[in-house]
Amino acid sequence: CHTSILPVRVLSTSIQQTPADAAFHSTSFTEADQPRILITGGLGQLGVGLANFLRKRFGKDSVILSDIRKPPDHIFHNGPFIYSDILDSKNLRETVVNNRISWLFHYSALLSAVGEADVSLAKAVNITGLHNVLDVATEHGLRLFVPSTIGAFGPTSPRNPAPDLCVQRPRTIYGVSKVHAELMGEYYYHRYGLDFRCLRYPGIISADSQPGGGTTDYAVQIFHHAVKSGRFECNLKPSTRLPMMYIEDCLRATLEVMEAPTKSLSMRTYNINAMSFTPEELAQEIHKHIPEFQITYNVDSVRQAIADSWPMNFDDSNARKDWGWKHDFDLPNLVTTMLNFPGFHTRVARAN
Ligand SMILES: NC(=O)C1=CN([C@@H]2O[C@H](COP(=O)(O)OP(=O)(O)OC[C@H]3O[C@@H](n4cnc5c(N)ncnc54)[C@H](O)[C@@H]3O)[C@@H](O)[C@H]2O)C=CC1
Ligand SMILES: CC(=O)[C@H](N)C(=O)O
């Protein structure tokens, strides 16, 4: 097992318990230290990419990927992987202590569409799981990253663009749980000094990982179908405009906000933006590369209602001002990159 290469101690002398009301300091991490990182829910669309990205920066053994699912061989052999269920707080605490974790990226979640299909599981994973993570992170002085989403806004929010601070009344359990995560994280920051950092991600597009059951999944699936068959049946209306981002920008933003000096952060939850498009516009861009590509529409009413309640665009001016956020990928770059991603064609063929 990969964990055997990590220093495992029942009680590490370098860890002191942080009193719950200690303010604004971390006992196990100083700016000069190399962080020791745990990623929860790491086998989803974003976690493996994040682990690879962080391992390039901090070294393979400094980053532990965890999930409740069994990893495929290539992921298991690529660096430390352990089982960790965020609903089991004792197991989570043990993992943090035994591996001297100092940064935690909390990726476990049920996304918008699968959350509506199983509200009680979504409540458990997205709300109870978050409570466990917040408590363990506070007890052990971790720097904690929790992603939020465009889904944290609702039909009464300003939609074009949605600013950082505005009405947030989402109508999905996913959105409600993410607003809860934003507020709880900020509460723990003010009350206990937890170094909580949160970005609201747009829909994320990746070539080498599959989406986990969200409303923006079409924007990943379309590429696979375009390459495989030249046709795609979209489950959102052609005019549905949503904010989107290429995974490389998303992962870079995540590391940048984690490394931002505390004094540069005027807020703890930031919107980040890159591009905004409709299925029709994405199809037109793909058409430039694959002239025979055809898109048809068969609308899924649950996903459509969700998308119609989300922002069409994000105002991320605070992230740009405070810690210098800047995206690299716009729509034409995204499409060129996805269709030319090394191994994309063979990977699509293998997956089907
Ligand atoms: N992918 C996207 O477009 C966006 C993602 N985000 C957020 O980023 C994070 C990562 O997203 P994805 O990788 O796309 O999600 P995903 O749905 O692909 O993966 C989530 C992972 O959580 C794991 N999980 C479920 N229950 C668990 C439990 N009890 N303990 C530990 N792990 C558990 C699942 O096995 C899965 O591997 C999520 O918090 C999501 O809300 C936010 C906005 C956009
Ligand atoms: C935008 C998200 O948070 C996610 N991709 C979803 O569609 O649920």
From TrEMBL:
Domain NAD-dependent epimerase/dehydratase, chain residue ranges per copy: 37-272
InterPro entries: Epimerase_deHydtase (IPR001509), NAD(P)-bd_dom_sf (IPR036291), NAD(P)_epim/dehydratase (IPR051225)
Highest taxon in the source lineage: Eukaryota
The keyword Signal is annotated on this UniProt entry: yes
CDD domains (UniProt xref): TDH_SDR_e (cd05272)
Claim: Hydrolase is one of the keywords in the record: no
Keywords noted in UniProt: Signal
Family: Belongs to the NAD(P)-dependent epimerase/dehydratase family.
Protein name as catalogued: L-threonine 3-dehydrogenase, mitochondrial-like
Organism: Erinaceus europaeus
Gene of this entry: LOC103108323
